[in-house]
Amino acid sequence: MKYYIKVLRSNLDNILSSESISPAAFYGRRGYGYNRFDHANDDTSDYELYLSEEVDDSEEDVAYIEFLVEDNSQLIGNSVSCGHTVSSTLRLYPWNCRILFKSVDDAKETIFICRSSLANKMWGCYAFDVISDVRPAPSSSGFAAESTISDLSTEILRDRKVNSLKGFAFAYYLGKACSLTPQLAILLRAERHIYGLATALAGMKNPTKEMVDTVENLKKIFNANDPNRLELKQRWEKLVLGTFTSVKDGKNFEEQLKRLGVQRQAMDTFATEQGIRLNPRFDVYYATSRDWADYKNQITEYTQGILKQYTEVKRLDDSDMLRVDGYTAGFSDESMRLYERVLAEMMNNTEWLSIDRIRTQKLETANDATKFVKKVYEEADITWEGSECQEYWDRLRRNIAYSEPFDPNWIHDKSLRALAIYILKGDTIDDMYKYMQMTGVEDYGLAFGLWGVSTGYVDMPKTFPVMLGLKQERVIDCYVRAYEVMTGREVPKRPVADSYQEVLQKEERVKKPTTAWSPSTKRTIETSSKDNRIKELLKDSPLKLTSSQQAEILAIVEKGRGTIDENDLKAIGKIKGIGKKKLEGLKILLQPLMRTAPGQLPFTEEPTKEKERVITDPWDVIVECLPKEEWIKEQIHRDYKWFTGKNKLGYHEMVTKLCDYFYRNKNATGRRSWLRNTYKDVDVALIERKLREVF
Fold first, then answer.
1. What's the N-to-C CA distance of the chain in angstroms?
2. How many CA atoms within 13 Å lie on the side-chain side of 227?
3. Euclidean distance between CA atoms 341 and 344, whole angstroms
4. What are phi and psi of 479, to 5 degrees?
5. How far apart are CA 576 and CA 186, in angstroms?
6. Which residues pair with 65 in a beta bridge?
7. What is the pTM for the complete model shown?
8. Which DSSP letter does residue 513 get?
9. Residue 522 in contact with residue 530, Cβ under 8 Å?
């Protein structure tokens, strides 16, 4: 069954950021996301949503959410004329709704706002369409005719918990997508220790024998856990055993190579031919300061290459068996009971382990966490005094209070480790991620999960998945898993990124009459009580503007008769207390008021009408992103023609495969290593971004 919810287009970023729509009374009290929601239906109560069985494309500045209902479990409401009313939140996901607009221009403007939003994460997976291209079929009446009277406080608390729980699940799976194997964690820890020693030795003329021996021992640990060396060993043994008729002959061959002193050269040559990259061999006893400095950079580059390759091929598994029951999360592993207690505490008491409290009262938070862990131990009849756990928390608190050394991997309990990392570095997700990489932590999911439940899904920055270096397909996979674990249902249809591109390629069939919010006309603000949005936008903005700042901004807007330009933005930037960060947020907030050329959207480099076409030869885009040297362009053009001639793919798949091919050339080894000199200054990420911006 399908129903249609009429909304103002100015509310769509709000709706797709929270991935839900609620009665207007919820927004000011729920404690996350936007604080305001305006009705598109004048006769609708602040405590109800109106679901229609048909759409009307005669109204300006509205859009419709086509809501697909698989069952009536969340649609208990009252039947009214040509529809129904609901007094609870409806969850909107890419597979149960699509957004319908009156015109292509309306769709483009809204898509740009969602793309620029600081919180809107999965908007690109939603389906967008134009009402004229859709034939809404009236749904059969199927609402349960039950009372909609409910406790507003209970409903709002439920919404807040769902937001926190979804933040936990999404962050948990994103962390799982980046987590390491025990082998890679050991490798990373050894690399960090080698890096530290190499930094010290690079500045010493006469390093001590103990330091040199330590580096040698760390190199042995590093090589023993190096996946490239393990792969080389397996391939080499397969070659030797496949060449000789008996294992004895193969062993004799190995002994002969050792006796001749050519085993290393033979294996290095074999590794080059097989395309296996090995960390550089390095004789620590005779190294100069310059050698140490170069080695430090080479081993870091090598290790980061291993991690990047690993995260690209890693797939999410069902380890830890995360489950969500109602508003609690749990695991099948008995050792996770402490972690479950921490999650329950955070869901019911947001202050105790909130990010704000960690930022301002880190030591007090660590003290409270120690008392909590001790209480859980005593309830489970586990000895606390003199235990490894007590020592671990004492070390953590001394690190916070006196900056004493602290290794999060000192204890094996994953729950304790995750809680300690969150308290130490939960101020920002960037700090926590870098800290876990630096210390060689194995499991990122548990620490990310604590940060996610405290932040909440809606307030989670959209740059979080990007910062992890995950491709969009991996992010969508984590998003789907979070949904499935929260609802206990499989996703009926997997969302596809960039589904909005079809709408962007459409041309207007009918010339749209001029309206106040049309992107092809001068921007104005209507001063009626219903449409005077600028004051409310500034008031409810997450930028936390003071009343005097709001008044000065309004004065600048009024001086421009409801519009602004670049000079006005400069004037806004000079207002006391408006720094660079707030100004960037204001650019997004005030973008509907920006004076632009006809047909052009503000604050963007969107292609003009002449460029809104399917590019038959992407080389025209690629060549603009290359270095100026002609010989580089010629070589890459030859590679491009070879690749496109060999691979007949669709445009989006071609972009992905082509950029992967460029990345391989950029990191080529063995016989193809000469390509690295050609591609070393090529910004492949820029090429991929520009190709995907083409409509």
1. 33
2. 17
3. 5
4. -60, -45
5. 50
6. 5, 99
7. 0.69
8. P
9. no
